[in-house]
Structure formats: structure tokens, C-alpha cells
Amino acid sequence: MPFALLKYGLNNDYPFEKDADLPAPTALKRRYDVVIIGGGGHGVATAYYLAKYHGITNVAVLEKGYL
Asked: What is the DSSP letter of 34?
């Protein structure tokens, strides 16, 4: 089971439906103060609390699909 999931995750034919109303992805900056890998609930919450309580706003949240 875990190997099948890994094989599916690394497949380039990921069934991602692109919505026409979504903005185009922007280019990455050369430097960030914090890079968070994974835009799930924990990743986005970490970025939020870093900005709200610590003033760190130069944060990149990386995710395979659109957030």
C-alpha cells in the first residue's frame, strides 16, 4: 500500500483540475526567511502564526497543487 501511494504521488499524470478563474503562479523569490513544505492545515497555520505573532512575513508555502 505505501509503495502504491508513493508511485501515484510521483506520477506526472496527477489528476489536477485547473480552474480558469485561478491566478497564474508567481515566480519564486531568491530568498525567504522561512520555507514551509506542505500547504495543508498545519503548513498554512504555521505561516499565519509566524506572521501574526512573530512578524515574519517573508514566508514561502510550497505545495504541489494550487492552494
From this structure: E
d(CA 50, CA 32): 13
Take residue 62 and report the three cell numbers written for it.
510550497
Residue 9 lies in a domain: no
Range of the domain at 25: 21-67
Quote the number of domains for the chain: 1
7-66: pLDDT as tens digits: 766 666 666 565 666 667 678 899 999 999 999 999 999 999 999 999 999 999 998 876
Lookup: cell for 12:
506526472
Residue 12 lies in a domain: no
**Rounded CA separation 32/16 (Å):** 27
Q: How many whole angstroms separate alpha carbon 57 and alpha carbon 64?
A: 21
Model pLDDT, residue 48: 96
Is residue 59 domain-resident?
yes
